[in-house]
Each structure stands twice: as structure tokens, then as C-alpha cells.
Design brief:
CATH architecture: 3-Layer(aba) Sandwich
Structural class: alpha/beta
Shape: globular
Helix content: 40-55%
Radius of gyration: 14 Å
Largest sheet: 5 strands, parallel
Number of helices: 6
Number of strands: 5
């Protein structure tokens, strides 16, 4: 096993999609520390590319982003054969995150700001993954 393989946690892949670099880094760091593998995207177009590269077990999705927002991303994802079954958790500062989550067919939501325990419990509950 080489150094690069040792640096990658063995856990399930979580795609985190958020245009705020601080939030993106924080979420990815927390998930990585819990042995999830993490892919990052700053908007929906990048997220679709990441899904094409490797199918994630779950997607954490911000809705308000440049280039392609979360709603448009979710619609494009659901139109792709097989990718429509990837569970999504919406991460939103929207005043009504439940409504926002329902709009994209998400299985869960986190209202910004959220705490680490809420993030981890949502990921575990929605994905059914153990880390």
C-alpha cells in the first residue's frame, strides 16, 4: 500500500456541494475525520462531473450557488439513469429548509448553521451507512 492509499479513508463516498469555501472545508474535514471519503464541488456543474467520475453514496447539497444551483443540479441528477437513487441531504440557509428539501426530492435537510452531531446523524440516518 502506498502513501496515497493510506491517506484515503476506507469509508463511503460523500459528495459535498457548496459554494462557500469555509463551509465546504468544514463539512469535508468533519466527514473525513469520521472515515468517510469526500468529494467536493462548488456548484452543480462540478457536482455532476464528480458523480460521473465516481457515484457517491450520498450528496450534501447547498441550494443557492452560482453556475448551477442545487435545484437545477437535483433535476439533472434525477434525469440520469441510476443516479436518481442517490440520497440527497439539503444544506440551506433558506428560512424553510423542509420545503427546499421537498422541492429537490431530498431525504433530509440541515438548516445553516448546524452542529457537527446533526450533520453526522443526518448522513448516517439518510444513507444507512455506518462509519
Amino acid at each position: 500500500m502506498n502513501a496515497a492509499e493510506l491517506a484515503i479513508p476506507p469509508g463511503p463516498l460523500v459528495l459535498v456541494v457548496d459554494d462557500d469555501p469555509d463551509i465546504l472545508d468544514a463539512i469535508c474535514d468533519v466527514l473525513h475525520s469520521e472515515n468517510y471519503r469526500v468529494a467536493r464541488a462548488r456548484h452543480g456543474v462540478e457536482a455532476l462531473e464528480r458523480v460521473t467520475d465516481e457515484r457517491p453514496s450520498i450528496i450534501l447539497l447547498d441550494l443557492m450557488m452560482p453556475v448551477m444551483d442545487g435545484v437545477t443540479f437535483a433535476q439533472a441528477l434525477h434525469a440520469r439513469d441510476g443516479d436518481d437513487r442517490i440520497p440527497i441531504i439539503v444544506i440551506s440557509a433558506d428560512g424553510n429548509p423542509q420545503k427546499a428539501a421537498a422541492a429537490v426530492g431530498a431525504r433530509g435537510f440541515l438548516a445553516k448553521p448546524f452542529d457537527i452531531e446533526s450533520l453526522l446523524s443526518q448522513v448516517a440516518a439518510v444513507s444507512g451507512l455506518k462509519h
